[in-house]
Hints:
Elements (H helix, E strand, L loop, with lengths): L5 H7 L7 H15 L13 E3 L4 H18 L3 E3 L2 H10 L8 H12 L10 H7 L3 H7 L17 H16 L6 E5 L5 H10 L2 E6 L2 H10 L5 E5 L13 E7 L10 H11 E14 L8 H6 L9 H8 L4 E7 L2 H17 L4 H4 L1 H19 L3 E9 L12
Parallel strand pairs: 3-4, 3-6, 4-5, 6-7
Antiparallel strand pairs: 1-2, 7-9, 8-9
Helix pairs in contact: 1-3, 2-3, 3-16, 4-16, 8-9, 14-16
Pfam families: CMAS (PF02353)
Family: Belongs to the CFA/CMAS family.
Keywords: Lipid metabolism, Methyltransferase, S-adenosyl-L-methionine, Transferase
Amino acid sequence: MDVDFDDASKKEAQPAPAGGRKSSALGTLSNLLGRAGIRVNGDAPWDIQIKDPRAPTRILAQGSLGLGESYMDGWWECAALDQFFDRIFRANLTEHVTAKDVLQTLRARLLNLQNSRRSWQVGKEHYDVGNDLFSAMLDRRMTYSCGYWKDASNLDDAQSAKLDLVCRKLGLQPGMRLLDVGCGWGSLMQFAAENYGVSCVGLTISKEQAEFAQRTLKGLPVEFRLADYRSFNVEGLEKFDRISSIGMFEHVGHKNYTAFFDACRRSLSDDGLFLLHTIGRKRTRNMIDPWFDRYIFPNGELPSLAEISTSVDGRFVIEDVHNFGADYDKTLLAWHARFEAAWPQFASKYGERFYRMWRYYLLCMAGCFRARQIQLWQTVLSPQGVAGGYRRHS
């Protein structure tokens, strides 16, 4: 999330009127949020309540990072964070960034923040945070990606529908081999092996995920390999009938897109299919949110459709693109509800600041998807084009 505090910061640099700097910051913040119909210390569920007088100055000076960290520190409250962020994004307060946000974005453009050494960081800092926490928050198969709510009314059904949708789009048949790049806890592999009779290999950069999944899925024809995609099957000697990548491409980074698609191409049979499921942004901007980068997904970067299209050029034929990003709002709210219900058993282990960080993450993302600021795409690719054309399953 990149919030437009740049103009507000410039105003703040002017001599403070009577009442002092803090009251000036409060007024500036009130005017800024007022553009989104949000009142400071108002009584609507999306209004924010200032609990520490230092909060406005910190938010205006530090933008997204200051907004998130001051919430984590208890400096402001909001009864409905998802509604707060929905209004922020719909009012386009995210179109301009602070100096700190610009520096973070320049780092992403100039440096490869997702190189082979850095790629393991997100596994250690996010996905290894605790299998017990994720087990309580996610569905019964621990599927950490957007559910498909077309005909579903609960999280388990939505995730089962999504996994089945992936299998049907890939045309899985008994005896096929499936490679799942960024396999998480193996939910797709479990579903595909049990319901479609395929054998699976999963790649992950999370040691905790691999060990947990290997234990829980013992007996199924699934194999987990702790490996970065760049080091996998370098000679291209191992071929798979189908490849999937569900919710992993957000960690690849624009400097590595071609390497990612090269790795998938060399591992896919010539008559195979590859399904890419990824969050994406509506514009090609390579924006990096400093709060999310520091606390949730280190070195994460959302692609645009244009970047995906350019990167697959000469490698794959784009057979189908399906956007059901609005379903991520429901998914995140379901995760949040389960997280809140389970929190008492985790409070002593993780602490209050983690609790506020995690709910901020889930509800900010829900508001962002609700405002259609970011999308969720499933793209089906083939090496040479499906003879007679590809037909979508939905």
